[in-house]
Specification:
Elements: H1 16-20, H2 24-54, H3 58-67, H4 70-87, H5 94-114, H6 122-137, H7 141-152
Length: 153
């Protein structure tokens, strides 16, 4: 009489942690895509958002006058957007910049709702999503930035 046999599952040579990780090519593609988003957002904040404020384009002047912030507010926001847009391209500042720009977009959303009756309120919300993704994905850079700051103090 033959003995019953139990089927044996094939074994793999990969460790359990490697099976859960995406392949290297997938990680590389994700890094490249994130970098492209960072560059596009940086260019947007520098050229489409900060520049009109810093050169006092009539449309920007009109908006800030309507808000009651005047040219001082316009230039201040323009400088913050310029600094944030440039910092998105500096590796050690990417996460901090994304958080700061997200906070600025929360303010822009609030202003759009309160002053302009929600006319363009979707724009800051749409920008917050990729900024939050950048802040999270580049969060390891915060420790590096902290080490640099502590070394200087």
């Amino acid at each position: 009489m033959s003995e019953p046999t139990t089927p044996v599952a094939p074994t793999t040579s990969l460790p359990a942690s490697a099976a859960a990780e995406p392949p290297a090519s997938g990680r590389r593609a994700a890094r490249v895509a994130l970098r492209v988003v960072q560059v596009l957002l940086g260019l947007f904040f520098v050229f489409a958002s900060a520049l009109p404020k810093l050169i006092a384009h009539p449309s920007a002047v009109e908006i800030f006058d309507e808000m009651g912030w005047g040219r001082t507010g316009m230039y201040s926001i323009g400088v913050l957007e310029l600094a944030g847009g440039v910092a998105l391209l500096v590796p050690v500042l990417q996460s901090v910049s994304a958080v700061a720009l997200s906070a600025l977009m929360v303010g822009a959303f609030s202003v759009q709702l309160t002053v302009f009756d929600g006319q363009n309120a979707a724009t800051p919300v749409v920008l917050i999503v990729p900024l939050a993704l950048i802040a999270w994905a580049r969060r390891d850079r915060n420790a590096q930035l902290l080490r640099l700051v502590r070394r200087q103090v």
